């Protein structure tokens, strides 16, 4: 995958991305908004094992957001199984120095197009914590609709939180005929 979003790129991960990603991912403000499987502190070994697992996956569904010189974030799809096989959850994070430039709104749009056009997904969803209005806003800017509140669905940093469910629907198999 190689897609340009303005001066930034969405591309496949490379082992050489480990140092930049360990540098930017080691940020409690990022960790606070993600699942606990995302480590904090985030070490170079965490970056290496993450990139290795992403590179081994087939098909590849997790990608780097990058400048011309380094990776500055991650965006990916987790396809569902069984009756959810045409549904995918989207996850993403961006290095703090790059926040507020519109990068993630564009990246979400671009990966949603890829999921629907290339992977033939019908539904893409994301579930930001209720404490994360910036993530809700980027989903709205990318054309996702708010579906509702998942009450008390998360235990993060010793607190019970709601999640806000957003989705984007492509054509369904029935509509495709
Ligand atoms: C959430 C995140 C991905 C946003 O990326 P980004 O590239 O900075 O987003 P954009 O610049 O495209 O848009 C951010 C929008 O949120 C808004 N925003 C930022 N902080 C906000 C806040 N506290 N309350 C309300 N809106 C806020 C901005 O004003 C902007 O909207 P606008 O263009 O209408 O002004 C980034 O901050 C991040 O990586 N956070 C940590 C990890 C994370 O939260 N991942 C998502 C988990 S669901």
Detailed description of the structure:
The mean pLDDT is 96. This protein is 30% helix and 32% strand. It starts with a strand and ends with a helix. It has 177 residues and is an alpha+beta fold. Strands 1-2-3-4-5-6-8-7 form an eight-stranded mixed sheet, sandwiched between helices. The longest helix is centred in the middle third of the chain and has 15 residues. Helix 1 packs across helix 3. The protein has a domain of 123 residues: 3-Layer(aba) Sandwich (Aminopeptidase). The radius of gyration is 16 Å and the shape is globular. Coenzyme A binds next to strand 5, helix 4 and helix 5.
Any key phrases for this structure?
alpha+beta; about 30% helix; about 180 residues; 6 helices; Aminopeptidase; binds coenzyme A
């Amino acid at each position: 995958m190689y897609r340009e979003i303005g001066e930034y790129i969405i591309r496949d991960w490379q082992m050489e991305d480990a140092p930049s990603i360990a540098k930017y991912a080691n940020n409690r403000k990022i960790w606070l908004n993600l699942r606990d499987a995302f480590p904090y502190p985030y070490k170079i070994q965490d970056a290496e094992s993450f990139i290795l697992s992403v590179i081994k996956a087939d098909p590849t569904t997790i990608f780097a957001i990058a400048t011309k010189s380094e990776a500055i974030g991650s965006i990916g799809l987790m396809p569902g199984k069984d009756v959810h096989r045409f549904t995918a959850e989207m996850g993403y994070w961006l290095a703090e120095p790059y926040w507020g430039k519109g990068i993630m709104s564009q990246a979400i749009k671009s990966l949603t197009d890829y999921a629907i056009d290339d992977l033939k997904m019908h539904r893409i969803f994301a579930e930001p914590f209720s404490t994360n209005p910036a993530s809700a806003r980027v989903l709205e800017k990318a054309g996702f609709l708010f579906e509702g509140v998942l009450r008390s669905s998360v235990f993060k940093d010793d607190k019970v939180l709601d999640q806000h469910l957003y989705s984007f629907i492509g054509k369904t198999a029935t509509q495709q005929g």
